[in-house]
From TrEMBL:
Biased composition annotated in UniProt, kind: Basic and acidic residues: 591-605
Alphabetized InterPro entries for the sequence: Bact_polysacc_biosynth/exp (IPR050445), GNVR (IPR032807), LPS_length_determ_N (IPR003856), P-loop_NTPase (IPR027417)
Polysaccharide chain length determinant N-terminal domain residues: 17-112
Higher taxonomy: Bacteria, Bacillati, Actinomycetota, Actinomycetes, Micromonosporales
Domain Tyrosine-protein kinase G-rich: 216-267
Keyword Transport found: no
Location relative to the cell: Cell membrane
Main subcellular location: membrane
Full protein name: GNVR domain-containing protein
Region (Disordered): 571-605
Organism expressing this protein natively: Dactylosporangium cerinum
Gene3D superfamilies xref list: P-loop containing nucleotide triphosphate hydrolases (3.40.50.300)
Family stated for the protein in its record: Belongs to the CpsC/CapA family.
SUPFAM superfamilies, A to Z: P-loop containing nucleoside triphosphate hydrolases
A Pfam family it matches: Wzz
Length: 605
C-alpha cells in the first residue's frame, strides 16, 4: 500500500494536474477564450484607424569639410544624428511643416504625431507621420522632411555667411597692417637696422593674407544643398492601427489565462474527487485499486475474469490477502479462512455494490468458498445497483428476513449460477428491519458464515447516510471504502475513513471507480418489470419455511478441492404457523435465460 501511495503522489505532478484540470473544465476555458475574442473584436471596432507614412532623408555634409562616415549608426565629426533627430521634432521645423501642410493644428500637436528613427550603421533619418487619414499621413511625413531639410540648409547658409564675414574682417585687418609695414619700409634707408624686422613682418602678413584669401574663395564657391530625400512618403494602403490579428491573439491569450484561472478556482472550490491521486494527497487514504474510465463498469455487470476489470479486481483480491497478515507459525491459507471484509461506500450510489460483487467473485475464482452479504436495508436503497441482476439470484428471502426471524440463514443463502464457489445473501424484503444491523442476530449470522465460508464480503450502507457501516466494520477483519469519481466528495471520504478507524477495524484503502452509468435499458436487457399486488402471505407460502437452527459442527470448506462432508442433523417438522396477513406490493423482474454477460457466458436467472 505504501508503494501505491508513493506512486500516486509521484504521478501527481503540477503539469499533469494542470492539463487534467483544463481537460475537465474545457467548457469554462473555451467560454473565456470566446469571451476574450469577442472583447478583442469589439475593442478593435472601437479603435480609431491610424495610418503611417515614412520619408527617408540622407544626412550628408554640406560642403564645409564635414566627415560623413558613420560609426554604430551615428556620424562622427560635426554631424550628430541624435541631435538631428531631435531637430526634426523641434518647434521651428514643426512651424515650417505646418505652413507646408496648411494645417490648423498647433506646431506642438503636429510634432507629437512625428516619430524619427535612425537605422543602425547608416546616416539616414526615417521620419514617420501618423494620422487618421492616409493622405494626411503622407503629406505630414513629406512636410516634416522638407521643413527639416530647409531648416538645415538655411542653418548651413547662415553658418557659411558668418564664416565669410569673419574671414573678410581678418583680411581687412591684415591688409591694413601690410599697408603700414610697406609705408615704413619705403621711408627707411637700405642700411637701417629696423629694415630686416619690418621685412619679416611683411612676409608673415602676406602669407596670412594668402591663406585667408584661399579659405574665403573656397567658402564663396561652396554650394549649400541639403535637399536629399532618398525615399519620399507614399500613400498608405491600410491602417497600422488597429491591428486586428494582434488584438484577436491578445484577446484569446487573455481569455485563455482567465479560463485557466477560473478552472483552477473552480477546481479548488469543488470538493469532489476527480482522480485517484486526490485520495492520498487530500484525505490520506491509500488507493488499493482504480478502475480506468475506459472500462466503464455497469450496474448489472460482473467483470469477466480475463478482462481489464477482472484483472484489476484480481489484483485487489491479492492486495486484501496481503494486507491481513497470518499469525506467526500458521499457514497463511488456513489462517485467512473465515475472514470478513466490509465494503462501504463513502457517498450514496452503487459504488459499494459494484466493488463488493466483483471482489466476492474474485475470491470465488480462487476456489475458496465465498459469501457475499448485502446489508443495504430497503429503507436505505437509494441509487444502488441490484445484486440479484448482477449475479442472477432471487431478491427474497435475504438478510433482513433472517434478522427478523422469518427465514433461516440456509434458506436465504443462494448460489450464484455463474460462480460455483460464490453464495449470495441479498438484502431481503422485510420493511420493518430498522436497527437490526446492531442486533445480536447479525453477530450470530456473521459468526455462522465465518464457519461455513473462507471469505465473507459484506456490502455495507454508505457512511454518508447511515451508521450501519460503522457497526458492520466493528464485526469485520478489514474494511474497504468504495469511491465514485466526480460524485464522492473529499469530506465524505475523510468522514468514512474516520468512522471505520474509530471502531478499530483496519482500513485497507479505497477502490476508485469512474462515474457509473445507468443500468441497461429494457430493450438491451429484453426484460420487463411487472408489479404484482398480492397478499404477502401468498408470496411467503411459495418460499421454503424457516428451518430451526440446531448446533452442528460442520467442517470448513475453504477450497473446492478441500470440500468436506457436512452432516445435517435431523429436523423434526413443526406445525406450520400461519403468518399475519399483510398486503404488500413487490417488483419481480423476468430476464431471458439467453442474456449474455460480460465474459460471453449466458446469465442463468
Amino acid at each position: 500500500m505504501d508503494a501505491n501511495r508513493q506512486l500516486s503522489a509521484d504521478t501527481d505532478s503540477p503539469g499533469v494536474d494542470l492539463l487534467g484540470m483544463a481537460r475537465r473544465h474545457w467548457w469554462l476555458v473555451l467560454l473565456m477564450v470566446g469571451a476574450g475574442l469577442l472583447g478583442a473584436g469589439q475593442f478593435t471596432g472601437m479603435q480609431q484607424k491610424v495610418y503611417e507614412s515614412a520619408t527617408s532623408v540622407l544626412v550628408s555634409p554640406l560642403g564645409n569639410g564635414q566627415d560623413a562616415n558613420s560609426t554604430s549608426g551615428r556620424t562622427k565629426g560635426d554631424i550628430n544624428l541624435d541631435n538631428e533627430a531631435q531637430l526634426v521634432t523641434s518647434t521651428t521645423v514643426a512651424t515650417d511643416a505646418r505652413e507646408l501642410m496648411r494645417a490648423t493644428q498647433t506646431p506642438d500637436e503636429l510634432a507629437r504625431q512625428v516619430r524619427v528613427e535612425v537605422p543602425p550603421n547608416t546616416t539616414f533619418l526615417v521620419i514617420t507621420y501618423s494620422s487618421g487619414d492616409a493622405r494626411t499621413a503622407q503629406a505630414g511625413s513629406h512636410a516634416f522632411a522638407e521643413a527639416y531639410l530647409r531648416n538645415r540648409e538655411e542653418s548651413a547658409k547662415t553658418e557659411v555667411a558668418g564664416r565669410i564675414a569673419i574671414l573678410q574682417d581678418k583680411l581687412n585687418q591684415l591688409n591694413a597692417s601690410l599697408l603700414q609695414i610697406n609705408t615704413k619700409l619705403a621711408n627707411l634707408r637700405p642700411t637701417d637696422p629696423d629694415r630686416p624686422n619690418l621685412e619679416s613682418q611683411r612676409t608673415t602678413a602676406t602669407s596670412q593674407i594668402n591663406t585667408l584669401a584661399g579659405q574665403l574663395n573656397q567658402l564663396l564657391t561652396t554650394t549649400v544643398n541639403a535637399r536629399k530625400i532618398i525615399r519620399d512618403a507614399d500613400l498608405p494602403s491600410r491602417p497600422v492601427k488597429p491591428n486586428r490579428l494582434l488584438n484577436l491573439a491578445s484577446g484569446a491569450m487573455v481569455g485563455l489565462l482567465l479560463g485557466v484561472g477560473a478552472a483552477l478556482l473552480r477546481e479548488r472550490l469543488d470538493q469532489r474527487v476527480r482522480r485517484p491521486s486526490d485520495l492520498p494527497r487530500r484525505v490520506d487514504v491509500a488507493v488499493l485499486a482504480a478502475v480506468p474510465g475506459r472500462v466503464k463498469p455497469r450496474l448489472d455487470d460482473v467483470f469477466a475474469p480475463f478482462g481489464a476489470g477482472g484483472r484489476i479486481f484480481n489484483r485487489l483480491r491479492n492486495e486484501v490477502l496481503a494486507s491481513i497478515p497470518a499469525p506467526n507459525g500458521a499457514d497463511a491459507r488456513v489462517a485467512l479462512a473465515g475472514q470478513v471484509v466490509v465494503v462501504a461506500g463513502a457517498s450514496r450510489g452503487a459504488a459499494s455494490t459494484v466493488v463488493a460483487a466483483n471482489l466476492a467473485a474474485a475470491f470465488a475464482r480462487t476456489g475458496a468458498e465465498t459469501v457475499l452479504v448485502c446489508a443495504h436495508l430497503p429503507d436505505s436503497l437509494v441509487d444502488t445497483a441490484s445484486v440479484n441482476r448482477m449475479l442472477g439470484v432471487r431478491s427474497m428471502p435475504g438478510l433482513s428476513d433472517v434478522l427478523a426471524g422469518r427465514f433461516s440463514l440456509s434458506s436465504a443463502t443462494q448460489r450464484a449460477p455463474r460462480h460455483p464457489n460464490l453464495s449470495v445473501v441479498t438484502t431481503g424484503g422485510t420493511a420493518s428491519a430498522g436497527g437490526l444491523l446492531q442486533s445480536q442476530a447479525l453477530r450470530d449470522t456473521l459468526a455462522t458464515l465465518r464457519e461455513r465460508a473462507a471469505y465473507v464480503v459484506v456490502e455495507a450502507p454508505s457512511t454518508a447516510t447511515s451508521a450501519d457501516a460503522q457497526s458492520l466494520a466493528s464485526l469485520a477483519d478489514a474494511a474497504i471504502v468504495a469511491v465514485e469519481l466526480r460524485r464522492t466528495r473529499n469530506t465524505e471520504i475523510a468522514d468514512a475513513a474516520d468512522q471505520l478507524r474509530r471502531v478499530g477495524t483496519p482500513l485497507l484503502g479505497a477502490v476508485v471507480l469512474p462515474r457509473l452509468a445507468g443500468a441497461r435499458g429494457a430493450g438491451e436487457r429484453d426484460a420487463q418489470e411487472v408489479t404484482v399486488a398480492d397478499d404477502m402471505t401468498t408470496v411467503l407460502d411459495k418460499l421454503p419455511p424457516k428451518e430451526p437452527e440446531e448446533p452442528m459442527v460442520p467442517k470448513r470448506i475453504r477450497t473446492a478441492a478441500a470440500a468436506a462432508t457436512v452432516t445435517a442433523p435431523k429436523v423434526v417438522p413443526a406445525p406450520p404457523s400461519v403468518p399475519k396477513r399483510q398486503t404488500r406490493t413487490i417488483s419481480v423482474t423476468r430476464v431471458r435465460a439467453d442474456t449474455a454477460g460480460e465474459n460471453g457466458a449466458d446469465k442463468r436467472r
